[in-house]
Amino acid sequence: MSDALSYPRMELTVGDITQLKVEAIVNAANSSLLGGGGVDGAIHRAAGPRLLAHNRTLGGCPTGEARITPAFDLEARGVKHIIHTVGPVWGTDPRADGRERLGYRLEDNQLGQCYQACLELAAAHGARTLAFPGISTGVYGFPKERAAQIAVGHVRAFLGRSPVPETVVFCCFSEEDAEIYRRFLTPKDYSQSIQIGRKPS
Predict the structure, then answer these.
(1) ∠ at Cα 118 (44, 58), nearest 5°?
(2) Burial status of residue 114 (CB atoms within 10 A of its CB: 0-12, 13-18, 19 or more)
(3) Is the Cβ–Cβ distance between 170 and 2 less than 8 Å?
(4) What is the pTM of this model?
(5) Which end of the chain is more exposed for a tag (fewer CB within 10 A), N or C?
(6) Is residue 167 situated within a structural domain?
(7) 66 forms bridges with which residues in the sheet?
(8) pLDDT tens, residue by residue, 21-57
(9) What is the mean pLDDT of residues 113-141?
């Protein structure tokens, strides 16, 4: 299923990110970039063995950064790029005690950097349509509501100043996850967009 939401240039869908008709998809990768479980494994299987061979040459990727690669076997479906980003593992902030507001944990800032890096790479390579999974919300344990708020805030702010990507899709694993995104995508006062973890230019 797919939602056409009233906020310009953002959409929501539930399903398999490798089946979407978009020019670039984001892979929630691990730091080795050599594949894993969940979305990472599904994208590697769909892109085929050339993706793994290519990624072996990249030397990995630190948390909060992103790397762009060809889509290999997914090119037959219209996907031109895979953007691999390494999200934070929840609970790794040594100073956190669990009471921090949004934006006051190391993991919040690292997740924000992931979205920013992916959007910048997509724009630099002219990707008109880009799809994100829920970065770090699986085995990495990032609270889903907190992650969705960071994701939507960063995408909204980026689209407000960049014509590319033309459309960003949030691809959710379940309808329950999609409902969390709907709450933050519902039109409200956009003057207070949440954007954290942006590196100074």
Answers:
(1) 50
(2) buried
(3) no
(4) 0.90
(5) C
(6) yes
(7) 85
(8) 999 999 999 999 999 999 999 999 999 999 999 999 9
(9) 98
